Amino acid sequence: MSGGHGSRPTLEAVAAHAGVSRATVSRVVNGGAGVRAEVRDKVQQSVEALGYVPNSAARSLVTRRTGAVAVVIAEPETRVFSDPFFAQQLRGISRELSERDMQLLLLLLEQRKDYERIGRYLSGGHVDGALMFSLHTEDPLPAMANESGLPTVFGGRPGWPGADREPRPLYVDTDNRGGARQAVEHLLERGRRRIAVITGPLDQTSALDRLHGYRDALDVMEADPALVAHGGFTAEGGERAMAELLDRTPDLDAVFAGSDLMASGAIRTLRAYGRRVPEDVAVVGYDDLEPAAWADPPLTTVRQDVEGMGRMMAELLMRRLGLAPESRGADGVPASVVTSARLVVRASS
Amino acid sequence: MSGGHGSRPTLEAVAAHAGVSRATVSRVVNGGAGVRAEVRDKVQQSVEALGYVPNSAARSLVTRRTGAVAVVIAEPETRVFSDPFFAQQLRGISRELSERDMQLLLLLLEQRKDYERIGRYLSGGHVDGALMFSLHTEDPLPAMANESGLPTVFGGRPGWPGADREPRPLYVDTDNRGGARQAVEHLLERGRRRIAVITGPLDQTSALDRLHGYRDALDVMEADPALVAHGGFTAEGGERAMAELLDRTPDLDAVFAGSDLMASGAIRTLRAYGRRVPEDVAVVGYDDLEPAAWADPPLTTVRQDVEGMGRMMAELLMRRLGLAPESRGADGVPASVVTSARLVVRASS
């Protein structure tokens, strides 16, 4: 609490203490190139004796490195903190960055005007790169990332206009379409014939791809509208969507929900309507996070390695920054990653 | 994704475009003092024409302002993302900072070595101030805040060694002791006589103060050890603590848990042991966040305005930074704030 910036030892104080020039101290602090070993040692001793901490604003003018990475989740805080998906992805990112001694800065979004300030922050030279996830089609974030010139890695397949232009955005995704197909094929194998689907927001590729996987498994071009409801990736949304489906299609015998949270909401509604799970209605979720294990009955779901995806996002960014060995695609540029998804069968189906 | 720092227009490019010196552009970008209006306009036009964004590292050397505030929660990410208390406090902070157009940077902690990096970050001139909460007695964060010279506001009454020395740490707290006393007095009024307590970590002042409030209500100097168990502020901890208490003191007829999450865990254990709530055992929690309303039966609890405390922390910091009108205590320095707590009676007692 005490002091203020003024009380910290300055570069000049270190120079005076070591009996060298300011420029020499600056060179040592910024890596020591071109400074004799005994001079370097003397400066280091003075740095330690005085407890000098180089001002990063000054240092980053020299090194053009800040040692920090911005993480932006394109969702209101309320969702960020209530959906375990984000905690898990952040954990992966955090572990990977921590191992590289990079500082993670989580930027929260809530109101429209927060975007503007975040755009300025990303363009302001405060960070070396950015990780962005849970983007929606109309999100201003990709354009901001582009304008800032910051190396950026996205979580989830890019679906925004222009995402297919070169240079292609770098991203980490999971096989959402294949995972959803497995889920619905499993329900078919169990003899279910009226299979409904609860989707996430269809302006997100993850939600869209899961709906496509549902169609693939049923081998239809379009889903029967009586069997589709939107749950917005929240538990409350799943609750509402399930009620809509039961009102519209009382004879449904299964439901595939595009997230575990929506599935747990759907189970609550089924119970309220007196339907037994899985005897009357089988339920399958997606994600395999805590809500799947806590659900009653425990949820059949599709497992994706969410923490691993977070780690990979951070690793791809480190490669872009030249801080990790490059792995390149066939065309010689760092390659995006799509991880696999796999069905986990439990009592709800 | 494209470009890199090199592709952004430079100060020099703006100077050339406007036909003025580099120093003039720099002065305009940093507030325009001492520059004639028509020159300022010309530079502004060039800034816009080229899409120039001043490098904050350069600018902050001049203005000594970054426009950013660090928020550090002294808990592992797993707790930060599973306890709605933190989401709520962050929401308050985020709203207040957003109104002042300051960027919130959330720094996550997980491993011991993260502290070191965070210490360097705080000392590095990246932010104008810091907000820290959920500190433990042995936390290195207060010392780091002190060494960094950064204006800092704490959430929760400071309990670390030296916290009572001048200048006193600035903090926002709630009346934990009074709130807990109300909770236990309520149980006494309902005729309960064997009232147990489940505490949070006693190296946190919030947990300690709530235990003291329990003792105040029972009018004892020390709590009966057979009636005290530690739940670590988590639902799982509450579950375990309740089992310990029932094994040790089977005739208990009430329990006061120091958080709603611990109370919800306690209710699960009571159900598993075949005890009815509130008929056999009355339960009171603390916080009045979502878990209280979701609990079955809904939880009697102590309400504290968590979002409001977040707002106040941010506001106190803005005052310290001279960005909001000062309100000063009797001795002329900005004053810490302690908000009130109030019992909310529901079905669990």
From TrEMBL, chains A, B:
- Provide the GO MF annotations for this entry: DNA-binding transcription factor activity; transcription cis-regulatory region binding
The answer to whether keyword Transcription regulation applies is: yes
Top-rank taxon of the source lineage equals Bacteria
Keyword list, A-Z: DNA-binding, Transcription, Transcription regulation
* Coiled coil region boundaries: none
Query: Taking every annotated instance into account, which residue ranges of this chain make up the domain HTH lacI-type?
Result: 9-63
- Asked if the Swiss-Prot or TrEMBL record annotates the protein with the keyword Ribosomal protein, the reply is no
Spell out the protein name for this chain: LacI family transcriptional regulator
What species is this protein from?
Streptomyces armeniacus
